[in-house]
Specification:
With 840 residues, the protein is an alpha+beta fold. The protein is 20% helix and 41% strand. It has 13 helices and 57 strands. The strands form 14 sheets. A 5-stranded mixed beta sheet has the order 34-35-36-37-41, with no helix packed on it. A 4-stranded antiparallel beta sheet has the order 1-57-56-55, with no helix packed on it. Helix 7 runs parallel beside helix 9 and helix 10 crosses helix 13. The longest helix is centred in the C-terminal third of the chain and has 33 residues. The N and C termini lie far apart (114 Å).
């Protein structure tokens, strides 16, 4: 830009500063205490999920651990530690009391969920176990391994009952016959065969061959008469359990990962009678459901050999590989897991039993459209959080290292919706409130584009705008005027080539766009090659007249809007600038840098006013809270710090994250914070400064009352009560004075009897620690010897021997007691010389 433009920008800057000096900050309480109100942590990293239908709990593998998740609330109930090897299979019992875990260490373990203890470990395969299943009564466990073997174990006694060999490849799936008297086991694998094993004779009854590719799943009909097998050859075959003949073949037209007869556990148990005749004239009498690579859930009628209904999970499922598994959780609840580590639960409008049994009934299209409702989803693994921001105080929009952005409930972290539009990883997010309950969301990513979404929270976000023009990844975004709650007029974006672009938003209206409407192509107002390296961050001033950018070239620059003319350059950081934030009340700019510091800059002359030092690694994010009197920062050291602007002192540090904190956002002037890290964890923090201050005042008042009660008890001569109060407060000095006064007052026997007989094991250990400290001082040792003598003489040695942690106290007591005894013995001997001299 020319010098004339710079001069005009500087003059405008001075006028804005004079107007800004009149703004006064509202009275703000300094915040120093935050607590985690809710958290989103990876709980499912892939593999089949085992479900307890009666308890509606799911056992999920998460790396080396297993998490037990409540499907109703989405919260992790229990976490079972692993054995330092990745979990390959997990199986939970129907009553949710026992869970079995297999890992790559070739070890299987059995855990009691009530006590959260490992009750048994066993190693039965020479290669990892890929699938485990329990029989209908929970008495036997089947393990299918990649060593081509199938083994059955007695759950209660813990020994091996069967070992089956015969598969010519990896065994991928196993299922017991639901009728306990049938005593049959069915297995399949990548040898394209289904094998039927007799548990009584311990032999293979039949090898069922019809598939041309790997058989992925098996399911037994509720009546127990039919076996369903599906494979990667896109075919489903129905077999007769009695004759082992193939009843029918159904082309599925997709690679199927899971197929399940639509039946509840109650249906299977009530219809499993050996003398029952199948009501379907030689064909299954229940629908079966398949899921696969298409990302669709399909309901099949085995009598009509056709799919009667299908619905897509969402747009992201098919792109990420489709669905992995399907299960019936309750009478009206079904569950679907996807290959991108999500668990989705759906509610059926009709009971499974009444709906699934009527295969011959012709149902209208309206029935099928209203059959499935809900679609609540739990995201098991976000891998890495790249950015996040609040949509009001109760919702978060989060970007991960994927091409999707998702909206979450900030309390339960249930995923409310997913936005699919980018073709590469999303790196930056910003949100602007348009009206109550309605937000504009801007996202930028590695596909060099900026997308604009219209979200009402109650509906899926609609893509309303698309900005294309960058030639490298869009790494940062900002809305103009969003700090004031006004409708944004511009979006500023920065890319990896050092360019800044200003996009026009004047075309956006308050009318809600139709979902089928095409996204508007956004126009560029200004473009500038602002930096020599990547632009990491941009932020608008509160009045929207200026925008500041921070770059890897170690500088931050102030630009006028909408011309993007340079107003001022801030130099001084030793490394790249990762984040910038304008003060809402002062003409001050805060920058966070890779040189481990934050700096405050004067917008008037560009001088560095203050430097904040305390992080041990790069500071990646910063934002103002408490009406501009405090700054919150987050860094690559995993720390979140709260700073007081007036004196550059750190008010508090929080170290809950274990990885780099890439994302930080604040809501309601810092009443709520949200942070996201490189390990996929998101924490929502609530300010508890006032509550903790109130708690401290209450504790101080209670402490004063207890001190007064001690003084009153000593004044009244109730030394045993005073001793107890001083011991509860852990005041050893007060305790010593009480013992001294009790001894001087006389009546030691009654005092020691009342004091010692009521001591608990922890209090005994605490008293002996005081004794050990007093014993090192020649002025205090008499009280220590008195207390030690009464404890040892009035408490049985067997009880003392069972108190943990006393071994560290014995050595100190013995050494100093011997010294005191030797000193007293020397004094006694010296009295003999005095007696002799007086006698002579």
């Amino acid at each position: 830009p020319g010098s004339g433009i710079q001069a005009a920008g500087a003059a405008g800057m001075e006028a804005a500063m004079e107007a800004g000096q009149k703004r006064k900050a509202p009275s703000a309480t300094l915040r120093s205490e935050y607590e985690i109100a809710s958290k989103l942590k990876p709980f499912y990293t892939g593999g089949r999920v085992s479900v307890s239908r009666s308890k509606k709990l799911a056992a999920c593998a998460c790396g080396e651990e297993v998490n037990i998740v409540c499907l109703a609330t989405g919260r992790v109930v229990t976490t079972i530690p692993g054995d330092s090897a990745l979990v390959t299979s997990v199986c939970i019992s129907e009553d949710a009391t026992v869970v079995f875990i297999a890992s790559r260490s070739l070890q299987c373990s059995q855990w009691d969920l009530e006590t959260q203890t490992c009750t048994r470990r066993f190693k039965g395969h020479k290669a990892p176990v890929l699938h485990m299943s329990l029989d209908s009564q929970g008495l036997y466990l089947c393990t299918a391994g990649s060593d081509n073997q199938v083994k059955v174990w007695d759950v209660q006694e813990g020994y091996l009952t069967h070992s089956f060999k015969g598969h010519e490849g990896v065994v991928l799936f196993s299922v017991f016959h639901p009728h306990p008297k049938k005593c049959q086991l069915y297995t399949c694998g990548d040898d394209t065969a289904v094998r039927v094993w007799d548990l009584r004779t311990k032999k293979c009854l039949r090898v069922l061959k019809a598939h041309l590719s790997t058989v992925t799943c098996l399911s037994v009909s509720p009546c127990g008469k039919f076996l369903l097998s599906c494979a990667q050859d896109s075919m489903a075959h129905v077999w007769s359990v009695d004759t082992f003949a193939k009843v029918s073949s159904i082309p599925l037209n997709e690679v199927t990962n899971s197929a399940v007869f639509l039946a509840t556990r109650e249906m299977a148990s009530s219809s499993n009678r050996e003398d029952e005749e199948d009501a379907g004239a030689g064909k299954p009498s229940n629908y079966f459901v398949t899921v696969g690579q298409s990302g669709k859930v399909r309901f099949w009628n085995p009598r009509k050999f056709k799919c009667e209904y299908e619905f897509s999970v969402d747009d992201t499922c098919e792109k990420e590989g489709g669905c992995l598994d399907f299960a019936v959780v309750g009478s009206t609840t079904v569950l679907c897991t996807t290959l991108d580590c999500r668990i989705l639960t759906y509610e059926l409008s009709e009971d499974v039993e009444s709906f699934s049994n009527n295969l011959d009934e012709r149902r209208p299209e309206s029935f099928w459209r209203g059959l499935v409702a809900g679609g609540d989803q739990l995201v098991g693994n976000n891998e890495q959080i790249t950015d996040l921001c609040f949509l009001g105080p109760k919702h978060l929009v989060i970007a991960t290292n994927s091409q999707y952005i998702r909206v979450y409930d900030a309390e339960t972290f249930a995923c409310l919706s997913s936005c699919s539009g980018h073709t590469d990883i999303v790196l930056a997010l910003q949100a602007c409130e348009v009206s109550e309950g309605r937000f504009l969301i801007a996202s930028g990513g590695k596909d060099n584009s900026v997308l604009l979404w219209d979200s009402t929270l109650s509906q899926d976000a609609a893509l309303v705008g698309r900005a294309e023009g960058h030639f490298s990844a869009v790494e940062c975004l900002a809305f103009s005027g969003r700090a004031e709650g006004r409708p944004a007029n511009y979006i500023c974006s920065g890319d990896g080539d050092g360019f800044l672009k200003l996009w026009d938003l004047s075309w956006f209206s308050g009318a809600r766009a139709r979902p089928e409407s095409p996204a508007r192509a956004m126009s560029t107002l200004s473009t500038t090659a602002g930096h020599e390296k990547d632009v990491n961050t941009v932020a608008f001033s509160p009045d929207g007249a200026y925008v500041c950018s921070g770059s890897q070239d170690k500088t931050a620059k102030l630009w006028s809007v909408p011309s993007l003319a340079t107003v001022r350059t801030f130099r001084g950081h030793g490394r790249g600038v990762w984040s910038v934030a304008f003060s809402p009340v002062d003409q001050v700019l805060c920058t966070a840098s890779g040189d481990k510091t934050l700096r405050l800059w004067s917008l008037k002359d560009g001088a560095c006013l203050r430097s904040f030092q305390g992080h041990t690694s790069s500071v990646l994010k910063c934002c103002y809270v408490s009406y501009g009197v405090q700054v919150v920062s987050a860094g690559a050291d995993g720390l979140v710090k709260v700073w007081n602007v007036s004196n550059a002192e750190c008010a508090n540090t929080f170290d809950q994250h274990e990885d780099k904190v890439w994302a930080l956002t604040a809501c309601d002037q810092g009443e709520t914070l949200a942070t996201g890290s490189g390990d996929g964890e998101v924490f929502v923090w609530r300010d508890h400064t006032d509550q903790k201050a109130l708690d401290r005042r209450r504790e101080e008042a209670e402490l004063i009352k207890k001190k007064q009660r001690i003084s009153d008890a000593v004044y009244r001569g109730s030394y045993s009560k005073a001793f107890r109060l001083a011991l509860d407060l852990k005041y050893p000095g007060q305790l010593h004075r009480i013992i001294t006064q009790a001894v001087k007052a006389g009546g030691e026997g009654e005092f020691w009897e009342e004091v010692v007989q009521d001591l608990s094991d922890d209090e005994i250990k605490e008293c002996l620690r005081y004794v050990s400290d007093w014993n090192t001082n020649s002025r205090l040792y008499l009280c220590s010897q008195l207390l030690m003598h009464n404890i040892f003489s009035r408490i049985h040695p067997d009880r003392l021997g069972k108190i943990p942690g006393l071994s560290d106290v014995w050595d100190g007591l013995t050494a100093y007691s011997q010294r005191h005894a030797k000193r007293i013995d020397t004094l006694v001997r010296q009295t003999y010389m005095l007696d002799y001299a007086l006698y002579k």
